[in-house]
Design goal:
Length: 129
């Protein structure tokens, strides 16, 4: 007794589709388990972030920082610009614009001097014409 070809193909397709559905069903169940574990992990991480933010807010309170600074940094003095490797400005260079303004205020108009040379060696040297 032979099975007709269309019935045989139908039975094969039925078997393959049932196996496929079985396989997909268990893949979906495994993915749901993974999703639940990831959601739990996300909730735990968010709680940890909230705790860390609260700790950070406490550690950065201005009153607390002020007391720590006054306790540990009593011998500190402000830095001098020469400690950073820069030269102090010469009085002539720092007052160049104010001198030009005073000079031109008597005439009633303000002109800016032309700059002939600028060098950027740790200090700004400007020579006016």
């Amino acid at each position: 007794m032979r099975i007709p070809l269309p019935i045989f193909i139908t039975l094969i397709l039925l078997f393959v589709s049932s196996f496929g559905m079985f396989h997909v069903k268990y893949q979906v169940q495994n993915m749901n388990k993974d999703l639940l574990s990831l959601k739990k992990q996300l909730i735990e991480e968010n709680e940890a972030i909230k705790v860390l933010e609260a700790e950070w807010a406490y550690l950065n309170k201005p009153q607390r920082l002020k007391s720590i600074v006054s306790m540990h940094l009593t011998n500190m003095v402000p830095l001098d610009i020469t400690q950073l490797g820069f030269k102090k400005e010469k009085k002539e260079e720092s007052n160049l614009l104010s001198l030009v303004q005073k000079e031109n205020s008597n005439e009633g108009n303000l002109t800016v001097p032309k700059v002939s040379k600028v060098s950027f060696k740790r200090t700004l040297n400007v020579k006016a014409e």
